[in-house]
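Researcher: Going back to the complex we discussed earlier. I've cleaned up the inputs and rechecked each line, so this should be the final set. Can you rerun the prediction on the complete assembly and write out the structure?
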Amino acid sequence: MSENRHFTTRRSFITGMGFGAVGLYGVWAAYGAAPLPFSTHHEGLHDGHGEPAEAVGHEGMVHGARLGMTPETFRREHAAFVDKFKRPDGSVEPGPQAAIAHDMSNHLMMGDDTATHDMSDHGMGPHEMSHMSHDSGTDQPVDLYLLAFMWGYNPDTLRLRTGVRYRLRMMADDITHGASLQLGTASRIIRLRPDIVSEQIITFTKPGNVLIYCTVYCGPGHDRMQGKIIVTGSEPGGQS
Amino acid sequence: MSDTMPSLTDRIAALPGCDKTLARVLFGSALLALLLGLGFGWLTALGRAGVTGFEPLLAARLLTLHGVTVFFYWLYLAQAALLLVLAGAEQNCGGLALRPLAWVGCVLMLAGFAVSEISSIIGTPLLYDGGPALGRDDPAAVGWFSLGYLLLGAGLAVSSVSVIATVLSRPNSGTSEPLSAVGFALFAWAGFLIVSAIASVNAFLPSVLWALGLGAFPANQPTEWHILFHNLHYLPLMATVVVWYVLVQALTGVSSMHGSRFSKIVFASYLLFVPPTSLYHMFLEPNLAEGVRVVGSLLSLFVAVPTVMAFLIIVSSLEAHGRSHSSSGGFSWVRALPWKNPVMSAIACSALNLALGMTFAFVLIQEKVAPLLSDTFFVPGYFHFFAVGTVSLSFLAAMMVVLPALTGTLPWRPSLLNRMPALISVGLLIFGAAGIAAGFVGVPRRTFDISYGGDAPALWHTLMSAVGIGGTVFAIGLTVLVIGVARSLFQKIGDVTNQQPEVSWGNTPARASAAAWVGPLGVLVMVLAMAVFTVVAFELMNALPLIVIGGSGGHSH
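Model: Rerun complete. Updated structure for the full complex:
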């Protein structure tokens, strides 16, 4: 009897239409946001302006996130970061030497004293090492640390440059917060859980002022929880 | 369901007096919850629009009260009431089995309602998820708040046992099948409620124990909440399609042309498709592995399967019967539907709102766009299409049929009520369009003062003003509708059952050759809209002046 029916009233047709939304997979795949069974490689989504997100294969990294940094280490590194790069106006402007400082601290944290050996074997002194990443063009990301707390961010103002790769490490100090970056047409949202270190490699492609604001309700001071990133041109002293 | 059975309204009118009293108490409490929650929500919308300013603590309290009262007590008291009445009506005059349990359930739910409202008014505002981290310095507030939800869960579970006993204990004698499609749907719905009640124990009992000093701080509450919350999304949707199924039959006489077994499979498939699709709520969690995000997105593509299939069963049966009874071709059968009946208007508007809600929900299930939209006003922007435009309208439509039959009254001003679903939908369109646009440009979800000292884009304020206008429009329509429905509870006019316009298409079977295009075309348009707005989201992501790699987290303590 079902066979005599118009096809739009058959159970098989209704069942098939029920799965209609699965067709959205095609759009996802077109943007590299879903694995294609016939694809021989995974193409990354353009996760931001310009270049597609690269497939990250660094040791210990999962899709760009380095696993294993403890909250205690984060707090220590964060304090050192703010202390080292704080300017007289209270803002923080990290230099490229932050990258090598980070690598050194990681090696030392892991009990790996070969880092200093490797470099001294090559005849490098402390001064040369502090500029290695900048001069050698190894494209090591510059480390940034951002601590969210009730109700603010530390540092509350960061001065960064376009075209520089930054390794942004973030953590909530007390309860869950957000650290959303308002980038003009839209925002990029990051949710921060207490004592869980989040990490992203970011590169700004345009100068401007970026509002940082909390997107997770965190108490009566939530509305005033904000910070700022001042992004200038890639040349030192570039105008925003 | 057998054609020989009396109509739904006759069966409800024939329920035993004690069952009617129980139903009136539950329906009345549900409507009270809706009015209260609507008031809190309207104030919240005005605050978000910048029309009026609230102290931060009061703003958070309003938000908490709105969510608790509407999402939990309106939606779940209404479900309990509908379940019990429909189960009782399934038995054709027999009434409820295990009646004392149903009454115990009612008392527990109302106690939960009182505890939740009072603790939300006087305690630290915890938002509707009752997150203990916000109340770390106020354990009593966390304890009382969580106790309210536990009482609600216990009441729902106990009431559901009565519902299951009712539909199983005295199978309707008019058919050879042990359980009708509606009876099976009620069974599955009640079972889903019991499972969710157990999930609520996992989510909220540790908070009560911590508040009493009998347990550790419930650090795992957010995860348990996500599991419960996912069920709480789909229970009202499942209830909605069951309500449509029942109401279309009551209004037009048309039952499924695809057989009750097919309907049963679809209703049961909620239990198959919903639980594995919960990961999309957690895409912003920093410690969720990338592989889990990808799998979560893929599974989420299937979350709408039962709802879309149930919609197609109902619409295709209606259309095939309508075409068989219509002398002129095309879509003239649509004009022949009983549009002067507010129940019909409410069902039609709720179906359109469901399509809008699903369209934008499917933008959010893609993990790559979660950093653009999650935790923004996009979320309330789209889910009000579900919560208000779909579920609340459908439940109110059901009450427009059930309450007059239950109390022997005439519906109040049907011509006025008939305009309300459209008015509510227009308000929702303004609210939703502005709210979704606000989400796309980054307006945070739960922040009242979005000026950020002048650093926020000016567009944010414009969009949130439109949200306030839309919220006011649908609040007016909903208030009139609730008052109209509630009058049937109290204003006894005589022994009169529902005399609103209906059609009788179910008396003769549909022509085999009759087509049913409305449902598939609707689904096609919806999927295309999903694709368009997903493309918009991806393009917005790509246009950001920021290249980002990674997004997961690391070590936690």
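Model: Worth noting: The longest helix of chain A spans residues 71-85.
Researcher: Good, that matches what I expected from the previous run.
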